[in-house]
Design goal:
The protein has helices at residues 20-31, 44-56, 71-85, 108-129, 156-175, 196-199, 202-210, 220-231; strands at 11-15, 35-40, 61-65, 90-93, 138-143, 180-187, 242-245. With 258 residues, it is α/β, with parallel strands linked by helices. It has a single domain (11-189, 220-247), classed as Rossmann fold (3-Layer(aba) Sandwich), CATH 3.40.50.720. A seven-stranded parallel β-sheet has the order 3-2-1-4-5-6-7, sandwiched between helices. The radius of gyration is 17 Å and the shape is globular.
Amino acid sequence: MNELPLLSGRVALVSGGSRGIGRAIVLALAAEGADVGFSYRQDARAARETTTAVERLGRRALAVASDAAQPDEADALAQRVRTELGRIGIVVANAGVAGPSGWEAISASDWRATLETNLVGAYSLVRAARPHFSPSGGSVTLIASISGLLAHPAELTYSVAKSGMLGLARGLALALAPSVRVNAVAPGWVRTDMTAELHEANGPRERIRGGIPRGRWGEPDDVAAAVVFLASDMARFVTGETLVVDGGGSLRWTASDA
């Protein structure tokens, strides 16, 4: 068995890496030997805390204020990571927004805000990072959602954006082959700021938990572990796939569960 960390010597770029699932991904990559550059939109304090946590693991960290909805900022983000940390070997497009609830009164600006951050932002990050990849290639992971696989009219813009990310992963897997692998991770119910209203209320929390065969909500570390796998050589022959991380919840999830 190789005793070296799975990602020893690699440089990772993660969008939306200061909190929640993004922070867990940043720390998991660093724990496996990667130096990590990550973006954050507003919470500078959380970004500093994440940077400190990475450095305590003995790895280099770079936090960059950047808005995933602005393609030009993706170019600047990738360039800074390349300049300060080195050639990029891992990209994780995690930055996202929830979007409005309901489907009948969605405005054009609602659609733009959700799609530009979640879907166009993921594409822009990969496009910006591509010239800075290591000559040996690398891996890209898009953080989608189980909402992209199952009909979810109560969160229509979010569901459509995440569904688009699954198609984006497949298309980019072909476009960037053979040197770069591209996959998606589709989390189910995970305890984050985005789901706080549900997991902090007894009724909804227990109803959702009861529908998950593993018997609990997901944690950010569960998603991060899947990302580490896909970024590592253990997944060296895996590309264009979607890894569902939902504790089996989608085996019987219906739109009314949300």
